Fold this sequence. Notes:
Oligomer: homodimer
Structural class of chain A: alpha+beta
CATH topology of the largest domain in chain A: BirA Bifunctional Protein, domain 2
CATH architecture of the largest domain in chain A: 2-Layer Sandwich
CATH class of the largest domain in chain A: Alpha Beta
Largest sheet of chain A: 9 strands, mixed
CATH superfamily of the largest domain in chain A: Bira Bifunctional Protein, Domain 2
Strand order of the largest sheet of chain A: 3-10-11-21-16-15-14-12-13
Distance between the termini of chain A: 19 Å
Amino acid sequence: MATTVHKTAFPFDKARLEALLLRRFFYAPAFEIYRGVAGLYDYGPPGSSLQANIINEWRKHFIIEEGMLEIDTTILTPAPVFETSGHVARFADWMVKDTKTGDVLRADHLVKNVLEARLAGDKEARGIAAEPKEEDALKRQPKRKDKAAKVAPVRVADEVVAEYERILAQIDNYSGPELGQLCRDHKIVNPETGNEVTEPQPFNLMFTTSIGPTGQHPGYLRPETAQGHFVNFQRLLEFNNGRVPFASAQIGRSFRNEISPRAGLLRVREFTMAEIEHFVDPEDKRHERFSELRDIELNLLDRHTQAAGSSVPKRMTVGEAVEKGVIANETLGYFVARIYLFLAKIGVNPKRLRFRQHMANEMAHYATDCWDAEIENSTGWTECVGCADRAAYDLSVHAKRTGAPLVVREALKEPIVTEKEVPEFNKKLMGKTFGKDLPVVTQVVSTMSEEELIKLKGQLAQGEAVIISPDGRKFKLTPEILTIERQTLKQSIREFTPNVIEPSFGLGRILYTLLEHSFWSREQDADRGVLSLPVIVAPTKVLIVPLSTKKFDELVQEVSSKLRKAGVFSRVDDSNQSIGRRYARNDELGTPFGLTLDFASVQHRTMTLRERDTTEQLIGNIEEVIAVVIDLCNGMIEWAEACQRLPRYTGTQNVE
Amino acid sequence: MATTVHKTAFPFDKARLEALLLRRFFYAPAFEIYRGVAGLYDYGPPGSSLQANIINEWRKHFIIEEGMLEIDTTILTPAPVFETSGHVARFADWMVKDTKTGDVLRADHLVKNVLEARLAGDKEARGIAAEPKEEDALKRQPKRKDKAAKVAPVRVADEVVAEYERILAQIDNYSGPELGQLCRDHKIVNPETGNEVTEPQPFNLMFTTSIGPTGQHPGYLRPETAQGHFVNFQRLLEFNNGRVPFASAQIGRSFRNEISPRAGLLRVREFTMAEIEHFVDPEDKRHERFSELRDIELNLLDRHTQAAGSSVPKRMTVGEAVEKGVIANETLGYFVARIYLFLAKIGVNPKRLRFRQHMANEMAHYATDCWDAEIENSTGWTECVGCADRAAYDLSVHAKRTGAPLVVREALKEPIVTEKEVPEFNKKLMGKTFGKDLPVVTQVVSTMSEEELIKLKGQLAQGEAVIISPDGRKFKLTPEILTIERQTLKQSIREFTPNVIEPSFGLGRILYTLLEHSFWSREQDADRGVLSLPVIVAPTKVLIVPLSTKKFDELVQEVSSKLRKAGVFSRVDDSNQSIGRRYARNDELGTPFGLTLDFASVQHRTMTLRERDTTEQLIGNIEEVIAVVIDLCNGMIEWAEACQRLPRYTGTQNVE
C-alpha cells in the first residue's frame, strides 16, 4: 500500500542543502553577527536535537549494550600530561607560508588541491567528460571544487598523470620534508597568489592557556578525551573489581587549532567526540561476542592496496579479515563491525561507508593497527570514526612519568613454578680473598647465563674453578667462597599493562554526512527539500498542525500531552501559514510524522496522520492515531504496517 | 508495612562522605597521578551517571515541559564578544597578595575567614558552646573550618562583635577598595604567615587563548553559556516564528579561573551549567502559567533584610512576593518557583533551600533584580542557581556594537494613529530671503514644540510671524516661505528589544549538595554509609546479585535483558564478595533496589527484591518481581505499594 519514493531523482545540490540547514538553524557559523571566526559553529534547535539523539543512540549501542563505564573528565589539562602523551612534541600539522603575503596554508592540503586541479585540467584538455561513470553510484556527487585551485585546461604527460595519482593515493603518508620536496619537484605554489611557499613547518594544534592567577600552570585544551581515561585507569580498574577486559567511555568537547578550517562541520576547531577506551589483556585480544558479528561484510581498504596506488576497497566479512590478518585482532575487528552497525542504524548509507587502514607513516607513533571509518560526502571520503589498537603505549608512558602502577594484577589459576641456579657468595671470605676486586668477581658471576652457572657449578664440585674478568684477569673460586644451588621459584600473580583498543567518533562529521545522505528534493517540486532522517535520530518526531489557531487549543493540548507522556517529542506549528507550507517546512526539518487537527477533529474526534517521505495520509479516531504514531516513533512498526491499521485519507488534499 | 528509617541518627560526617565519594569514584581530583591542579575534577561512573540523570530531569522539567529551544554553542569565544558584554572590563574578583611571600588570596574570602575565626575565638573565650542549638536541625552541620584561619580564644568587645556580624551579613556587597579598607581598619593579615596583604586588585576570571595559526584572534573560554544565546537571538526568534515570549536553553561547560579554588565541587575552574534565556516583552512580564504556581511557599531573604544585618528569610507564597513587589515581576517569580520544584524533585531538602536577593552592589551592573537559590551544606549556604532579570542589557549592547537588529517587530492589532503639526519650508524662497542664515532659521522651526508650532501657525495665518534665533536675532517669516499643516501619522509595527529572564544552574554544586543531603549511616553500623538518592537520579536503579558466579549466568542475562528493554539501568555484581558486602557497596553507590538470584531462583523461579533505605526484602516469581521493580523505577508506585504486591521475604537473612 505504501508508495515507493524515488529520492534520487534530482542530483545532490550542496548549495541548496546548506541554505536549508542555515535557514532552519540546524547550525550556523558562531558569532556570525561579529563576522565570526573560522572553524566554530553553533547548533540551533534542530541540530542540537539531532546531535542529542545521535548521542543517545550511541550511548545505548555502546555504553549500555556493553556495560561500559562512562566518565566525564576535564577539558583543561596541565601541560605535563600532554608532554608525556607525546602531544606537545608531535600533535602538529605541517604548514607553509606564502613567501610574499605570509598567508598560512596546510601543506598536505596545498599539494592535494593543486595536483587534483591539474588532473582535472588535463581531463578537460583531453576532452574526457568530468562526469562520473554511470554505474558508479558512489561517485555521483560533485567533487569538492576549491576555487583557488582551479586551473586552465592543460595537457599533462601520461607519466606525470600516473605520478600525480600515485602521490594522491598516499597523500596522508608524507612527512613535512617530503611535502616540501613535492612542492619543489612539482613546482607547487600558492594558487591564490602564484607565490612560492616556505619549507613546511610543524604547527602544534593544541590551544594553550594558563591555569591559576599567577600563571604558574601552563595548560592545554584537550585535543581528544582519551588522556582523561588513561590518567583515571587505576580508579576505573578498581571500580570494575580489578578485572579486564572492560571499557570506559566519554562524550565531550575537544579542541584543535586547525590551520585552515574550511569545509563546514567537517574541519572545525571545537567539536564533540565520543570515545571508548577498551582495556584488554595484551596476550588475549579475543572478544567474547565476536562470533555474533563474524559474518558482517565490510568494505576494507587496507594499507597494501593504498601503497599500490589504488583506492578500491575489498569486500569481506570481518571474520575473514581477522583470520587473514588484514585486521590485527578480534577485539579490533569486533569494534570495526560495531561501528559499522551503529552508523547504518542512525541512517548513514552503508554503500558510502568504507574502512581505511592507516599507512605506516600516517599512523600515530604508538598504534599497532588503525582503521578509519570513512564516509563519502560531497567533499570526498571523510574520516568520521577512528579505531586504533594503541597497544600499551599510553598507560606505559603515564606510569613511567608519574610512578603510578597502571597495571592489572591477575591471580594465576596455577602459579608458574620455575627452577633456577642461584649463586650464593660468602662475602666475608671473598673480601679477604679478593680485596678491592670483590665487585668485579661478583659482577662476573651474577651476569652469567644459566648454562654458564651449571658449568661453573660442575667445576666447583671438582674443588675449584677459574673465571675471567672483562679486562682479562683470572680469579680462582672455591666451594667455600661460592655455592650454586638449584632453587624453585613460584609466581602466583601476573602483572601486566593492558593494551587499549580505541574507537573514537567525531560526532559533527557524522552528523553532517548523515544530513547529506538524508537530503533530497521532491520530484514534483525540485525546490522542496526533504531530510529523510530515520525516526530514531529525527530532531522532532511529530508535528501537530491545527488548521487554524485558537479554535483547536484544547485538542492540541490533549494530543501533545499524550505524546509527551509516551516519551515522544512533538512540536506544535500554529503559525498563520497554510498547512501545506507548514508541512514543507517540517519536511526540511526532517520531522517524520504530521498530525492534522481540523473541524472534523472537533466534531468526530478524527485526526489525519501524514508520513514525510511518501506524503501519504491516514485517518482515524484520535486515540487510534496516537497509538499508531507512538508505535511508529518507538520503532515497533513501520509505515507499511501503519497503513494496515488505519484507512487511507481520501478527503480533500488540503495538506499538500 | 514499610519500616521507617531514621536517617539522621548520626551527625553528618563530611570526612566520611568524602572518603566514600572518592572510594566509589563519584568524582576525584583530575590528574591526580600528576598531583593535579586545584579546581579540576573528573567524574567517575556513578558521578557521571548521577549528573546525566540530573540533566535528564532538568531537560524534562524545563525544556520539554515548556517547549524551550535547546541550542549548543561554542566554548571558544572571540574577544570582541566579551568586550561588548562587559566581561573583559568587569568579570573579576578582588585579589590580594601576601606582601612577603607573594601568595595570592581572594580578598572577600580573606576578610570573611578572618572575621569568622575571630568571632569563633570570642565565643570560645566567653565559654559559649560552639555547638548549634538543638532545635535548629538546619545548623547541625559542622561549619567550615578553614585551618589557616583558626585563632586562639580571645575576647572581642561587644561593639566589635556587632560590627563583624554586620560586615559578614553583607560580605558580598563590598567593592575592592572597601575590602582593602576593611583589612586596614580591622588589621586583617594573611593568617598563614601573619604578613600584611597588598591593596585588592581585580583579577579577571576568564581563561585566555589564541585562535588560529597566526595568533591574530585573541579569545576566551566562556565563563557562562549566556552570550551564545544572545548572539543567536535573530535565528532563534525566526525559528519561533517571530514571537515572544520564548526561551532558549543550553547545557554545557563553562570556565572560570578561580583565584583559590578549594571547597571540592563547590568552587571549580571548569564546570557544567544549564542556562535558560527567557525573552519577554519589557512591557508585559506576566507569565501565562503563573497561576499554577502562585501558592508555592518559599524562603525569601530579600535585600532589605540583609542590609539590616539579618539572615533570617521570610516565608511567603510566590504570589504574595510578586504582589508585594518583593520579587520584581511574574516571570521572574514563575522561574523562582519552578527552580524550587526542580530542586525538590531531584532530592534537595527543601528546608535547606532559600532564595536570596542580590544586594545593590553585588548585582551584575545590568540586572534589575536577581535571586540566588542557595542550598545549605557543610560549608554554609551555597549559591546553586541564579535567577536574574537582565533587562534589555545584553541584546542592546550586542546590537549597538554589531549593528544587528536584535529586536522583535510586532504587528500592532490596531495601528497607533497620531496627529501632528508638520512644518514645510519653501527652500528656494528661503535661500533667497535668508542667504547663509537659512540653516539657523530651519533649525529654530524644526526644534519647536507642538505648542510653539500651533502658535506660529496662528501668526502665519495673520500674514507674518517673527522668530528669534538662539543668538537673539529676529527673522520674519511669511506663509509663502513656511506652511504648517496638521498631519495624521499611522504606526502599524511596534519594534522593541526584549528583556531577558535568566535562570542559570551550576550543576556540580547542585550535585554535591544533593550528595550531602542524601548521605547518612545506618543505626546499627555507623561505618556503613548510605546515599538515599531518589530513584529518578540514582546512578544505577537496580543491582542484580547472583549468589555465586557462573551458575546463574542465564538467569542474570534474562533479568538484565528484561530490565534493559524496559529502559531500567541495572548493573550486575558477580564479584566473589558476600552478598552482604555487595549490598553495602551498593548502598554507598545509592542504588535503590537489589535483586538476588540464588538456588531457589533456578528451582522455583523466585527472586528477592531489596529496598536500599529500609533493607526490607520481598520475594516473588521472577516475572512478578521484575514488573514491580520496573514500576518502582518508573515512579508508578512507591515502596509501600510494592510491599502490598509482593510478600515479605522471611527466609534466611543472607543478604545483610
